[in-house]
Amino acid sequence: MTALITLAHGSRHPRAAVGVEALTRAAARRLGVRGQAAYLEFDEPLLIDATRHTPEPTIIVPLLFTDAFHARYDVPQHVAEAREVQARECAGSQASLTLAKGLGIDQDLVDVLAARVLQDAPVGAHVVLYPVGTSDPVAAGRYGEVALGVGKQTARAVSVVAATRGGVEELRALERTHGALHVLPMFVTHGLLLDRARAALPGASFSEPLGLDLAAIVAKRFSQALHSLEVTHA
């Protein structure tokens, strides 16, 4: 049976890995497969160690929203290195590594975020979508599309502030303009950037990281990759 590995960036936050592991278990339960979390850095196991002795075919789902630097360069490089090691150490087995599409920014994510707004955002609060951010202008432009979609589904005005592109100062400026703010993190799990925003805006309300709400998207990416494999080998 094909196994699932979720691949997160990793974080110095002490609760980040706990959230990734819970998401991985939830997605694996949906699929009825073995699941394991792996990381690019900071947390363990790194991908190369998670796959070193994996005897079965495995699909890797990156826990990344945008198709930016990490998705285009870091992830393929780490997968290629893991394949080399696995080929040496699992020779003769059915081991293989297939890279699936990441979480992405599409209607599935908009639905998850809109549900969070309807559940969490106080009436009258201005909603701010708060992704980590990217230096890729095309990927960054997708944040606005997400905010527009969330706004349409919730009938709320939604601004975008990226944690690494303006971050706390832009949030404070919006708070001065709009008064009450509700911050909607586009974070998979806990992170230091999100903690800084919470500490800087004690009067704002915050949704929690998306966590388990992403399990259906992870399972969908796994199933799409598995279907492509089956079609290829049919």
UniProtKB/TrEMBL annotation:
Transmembrane segments: none annotated. The keyword Cytoplasm does not apply. Pfam families: CbiX. Keywords: Lyase, Metal-binding. One of its GO terms (molecular function) is lyase activity. Coiled coil: none annotated. PANTHER family: FERROCHELATASE CHE1 (PTHR33542:SF5), SIROHYDROCHLORIN FERROCHELATASE, CHLOROPLASTIC (PTHR33542). This is Cobalamin biosynthesis protein CbiX.
